[in-house]
Write a structure and sequence with these properties.
OB fold (Dihydrolipoamide Acetyltransferase, E2P), about 625 residues, alpha+beta
Length: about 625
């Protein structure tokens, strides 16, 4: 039973005609006018009443024509004289009139009711919710606006009217597809990040499927994977991704950038060339093009080319992780996220060690950092050779060994990791909007190119094709959102893990351009160890930063509290004054912050008339 139902029950009003002696009684006359007013209404119509008197359990309600009715409270609850209530007429007979409360909320908005009445619309639950949502969104509630929204709501009867109002306010096209995308946006469903994972998984699954067919299918698989690795290693047209900034110092930043590119610092004699994955990939290509045969210098049958090839294949199938020689010459066992790349490069080096003239190349591969980028560059050289020569058939034992290596689980994992790495940002890169723009330019161009390559393979029904289509739709939706609001999803590369997040600014672009630049914002993060983190941030007075962290549990709250000084100190170095607050996510409301607020949290002092500066 609703709150008002608990107060008034069925709100039954005695409709018996007054006795003759009541005519001289003012109260009786008022009640007669009330009954007369109600008798002119049809079932389903609504009526607004104002509480005029409360005596015990009896509540007197004044109707629009000045007449009154009296209802009896079922349960004790505080009501105030002057309070407006709305009822729906459920039964209207000669002996009895039954009124039922329209809403559970006692604070009905009389403005919404009057607007609906002026527009000739029934003040039922859906229409009232629609009018109230329009007012909350700052939209007009004139007859035309209400009529347009009513027809939109009627076209989508299964969609929450608040959702339709929000989409209309943002200027989004309203159809079944965009409604689903907007609902996912409201529910923090990270479509871009999830789409990346689906594309990576779908690409590898398609590669496996084509390769398993053998013959022409395997040739198509090699060609497809060659196109994919080339795509990952390429840069999109337009501006390149700006160099990553690091707060760890110039020398360390240079070392990290060099490692990311597969370059080791020069050592030894002056003029000694650095070892790079690109350089070793070229050497590997030349080795394959020259038709090198496996060395036959071993003893008896074990030294034959075929025996060496079989030994290489056996090594590939072994599950034990190979030991990779680092630059200092010490043995390190590959583990963690680098394991697939380390195993792939280790097995490739072992295969090359049995190849005449390739011993130096094998040794140099062992010197490279075992990361996904370096492993992919070497694999790409092999794929290009195999694809260029697939019509001639693969004859050399070295080629057979490397081809089987490219069907291993390690290689597939490297492809997945490299693709996700290619479409993500390090946290420090997010501070420069050019990095974000370049990332989305790359994501758009490369997914389109991948879809075109897939079309040439005539695989329209694959899961990869569907994932690429979904990604295209998600990018289109984000572009539509950004026509009016500042919003971006952020696939992030963290230390040893991945994270997803999004940034939503609480001001439309017109207001932002017309204001003094003060805008509040929310950063939502889903992190491996910290869980879900919501950060509401604002700047006031140009240099006063306020942040409010909403975290999942007390353990995480304690952790952030212990380290919040690091953020404070960094902001102070930039000339800001910092104030932080840390709260459990339960404080975000009844749903624990599971739904994105499109306006700053109600009653929140933090975000009122303040802003967010992404430089911080």
């Amino acid at each position: 039973m609703s709150m008002i139902s608990q107060i008034f029950g069925n709100g039954r009003v005695n409709g018996t005609p007054p006795e003759p002696q009541e005519a001289s009684n003012p109260q009786a006359g008022s009640e007669a006018r009330g009954r007369e007013y109600l008798s002119g209404l049809s079932n389903g119509q609504t009526v607004e009443g104002k509480v005029t008197d409360i005596r015990g359990q009896d509540v007197q309600i004044e109707l629009p024509n000045g007449g009154t009715v009296t209802a009896r409270l079922e349960n004790a609850m505080s009501l105030e004289p002057g309070q407006l209530l709305t009822f729906e007429l459920r039964s209207n007979s000669s002996s009895q009139i039954t009124l039922t409360p329209l809403y559970t909320n006692l604070t009905m908005d009389p403005t919404a009711m009057k607007a609906l009445s002026a527009a000739g619309m029934t003040a039922d639950a859906r229409n009232m919710a629609m009018a109230s949502a329009m007012m909350d969104a700052g939209m007009n509630i004139d007859s035309r606006s209400l009529g347009d929204m009513y027809h939109l709501a009627a076209s989508h009867p299964d969609t929450n009217v608040e959702t339709l109002v929000e989409m209309k306010r943002l200027g989004l096209p309203v159809n079944e597809e965009t409604i689903g995308q907007f609902t996912a946006f409201k529910n923090y469903e990270m479509q871009i990040s999830e789409g990346m994972k689906e594309i990576a998984d779908g690409a590898v699954a398609l590669y496996e499927e084509m390769a398993a067919a053998g013959g022409e299918g395997e040739g198509k698989a090699i060609h497809f994977m060659k196109e994919l690795t080339g795509l990952i290693l390429s840069e999109p047209t337009g501006e390149e991704l700006p160099a990553e900034e690091s707060a760890k110092g110039t020398s360390q930043a240079e070392a990290e950038n060099a490692a990311a590119k597969g370059v080791l610092p020069e050592e030894g004699a002056p003029g000694q060339k650095a070892v790079t994955a690109e350089g070793l990939a070229r050497e590997l290509s030349e080795l394959l093009e020259n038709g090198a045969a496996v060395s036959e210098t071993g003893e008896q049958a074990e030294g034959t080319a075929e025996a060496k090839a079989k030994e290489a294949l056996r090594l590939i199938r072994e599950s034990a992780e190979p030991e990779i020689q680092n630059k200092a010459g010490t043995a390190e066992t590959a583990s963690g996220d680098a394991a697939p790349a380390a195993k792939l490069m280790g097995k490739m080096a072992q295969i090359l060690e049995g190849t005449s003239g390739a011993e130096n190349l094998a040794a140099q591969i062992k010197q490279l950092p075992p990361d996904d980028g370096n492993a992919l560059k070497l694999a790409d050289a092999v794929l290009k050779h195999l694809d260029a020569n697939r019509q001639e058939g693969i004859q050399q034992p070295l080629e057979r060994a490397l081809r089987e290596l490219l069907h291993s689980e390690d290689f597939k994992d490297v492809v997945k990791n490299a693709l996700k790495e290619n479409w993500s940002l390090h946290p420090e890169q997010v501070a420069d909007k050019q990095n974000v723009e370049a990332l989305y330019r790359k994501l758009t161009q490369q997914t389109q190119e991948l879809a075109q390559n897939l079309g040439r393979l005539a695989e329209p029904g694959s899961s990869l094709a569907q994932s690429l289509g979904n990604m295209s739709n998600d990018l289109d939706f984000m572009n539509q959102m950004n026509q009016s609001m500042q919003y971006i999803q952020l696939p992030l590369k963290m230390s040893g893990s991945e994270a997803t997040g999004d940034l939503y600014v609480y001001s439309d672009k017109k207001s932002l351009a017309a204001s003094d630049g003060n805008v509040s914002a929310m950063l939502h993060l889903d992190m491996k160890y910290l869980g879900t983190v919501d950060v509401y941030a604002a700047i006031s007075g140009g240099d006063r930063v306020s942040t409010h962290f909403y975290l999942e549990n007390d353990e995480v709250i304690d952790l952030i509290s212990e380290h919040i000084h690091v953020l404070n100190e960094r902001l102070e170095k930039r000339g800001y004054h910092m104030n932080s607050e840390i709260t459990n996510r339960d404080a975000l409301g009844k749903d624990g912050g599971k739904t994105r607020p499109l306006m700053p949290p109600a009653g929140g002092k933090l975000l009122s008339k303040q802003s967010f500066d992404v430089r911080a």
